[in-house]
Amino acid sequence: MGEAYIEMFTSPGCANCPAVKKMLKELSNELEGGITVEEVDITADPTRASQYGIMSVPAVVINGILKFVGVPSREDLKKAIVKELEA
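Request: output the structure for the sequence above.
Response:
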C-alpha cells in the first residue's frame, strides 16, 4: 500500500479552510494509515505556495501534485487520496 503526503494550504481568516481541514481529518481516520497531513499557512510560507502556483486557498497538494483549489467534494477528495494509497 502506498502513502499519501497531503499539504493543505491555508491562510488566516480563510472561510472555507476549516471545512477542508475537517474533511481531511475525517478521511485520515477513516482510511487508517499511510496518510500524513501538513497544514501550510501561505502567509508564513509564501515560497512553498508559489512552487505549486497556488494563488488562493484552500488548496490541497497530494504527493507533490496540486489536486484541488477551493473546497473539493468529500467524494473527490477521498478518491484522490485512495488513488495515491493504492499506487
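Strands lie at 4-10, 35-41, 59-62, 65-69.
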